Amino acid sequence: MKNRLIEYCRSLNIEYVGIAPPGPYLDFEEIWAKQIEKGHVSGLEEKDIKRRVYPELTLEGTKSVIVCLFPYFTGNVEGANLSKYSYSLDYHIIIKNKLDAIGKFLEANVQDFKYKSFVDNGPLSDRYLAWKAGLGFWGINNHIITDKHGSYVFIGYILNNYPFEPDKPQDRTCRKCLDCVRKCPGQCILGDFTINPQRCKSYITQKKGELTERDIEIMSRNGLIWGCDVCQDVCPHNKNIKTTEIEEFRKNLVHKLCYNELRQISNKEFRRRYGDRCFSWRGKGVLQRNYEIINKIK
Ligand code: SF4
Ligand code: SF4
Question: Is residue 298 predicted with pLDDT exceeding 80?
Answer without folding.
Answer: no
